[in-house]
Design the sequence.
C-alpha cells in the first residue's frame, strides 16, 4: 500500500484510536511509518521511537484536523 493512500485514509478517520487500530492492522515497519510521515509532511521524525512516531502521525493526521474543525465552528 502506498504511503500517500495510508495518509489519506488516516486524514478521513474519525478518531485517533480508530487510526491506531488501522495502523496496527497494517503492521507497518519503521521505514513505512517514516514514508507515511513524509506524506503528511512531518519534519524531524527520524530520531523518534516507533511508538512516538506513530503518535505523531496520528496527531497530525487526525488530531490537528479535529482541532481545526472545532475552531471553525466556534
Sequence:
Amino acid at each position: 500500500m502506498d504511503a500517500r493512500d495510508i495518509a489519506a485514509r488516516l486524514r478521513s478517520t474519525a478518531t485517533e484510536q480508530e487510526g491506531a487500530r488501522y495502523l496496527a492492522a497494517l503492521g507497518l515497519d519503521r521505514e513505512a511509518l517514516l514514508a507515511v510521515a513524509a506524506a503528511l509532511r512531518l519534519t524531524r521524525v527520524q530520531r523518534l521511537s516507533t511508538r512516538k512516531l506513530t503518535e505523531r502521525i496520528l496527531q497530525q493526521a487526525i488530531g490537528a484536523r479535529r482541532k481545526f474543525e472545532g475552531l471553525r465552528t466556534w
Residues 3-63 form one domain.
